[in-house]
Amino acid sequence: MLFDVFQQYPAAMPILATAGGLIIGSFLNVVIWRYPIMLRQQMA
């Protein structure tokens, strides 16, 4: 089913890959960079 969509719309794969990368990157940004800073501020 999903493979048929990619065959019909070849531009869908890079668009979905970019959107997924942005979502995962945003989540990792919070977990790796911002969450420890928020924890330090709570302890102070």
From TrEMBL:
Keywords, alphabetical: Membrane, Transmembrane, Transmembrane helix
Transmembrane segment boundaries: 12-33
Protein name, per record: Prepilin peptidase
Organism: Escherichia coli
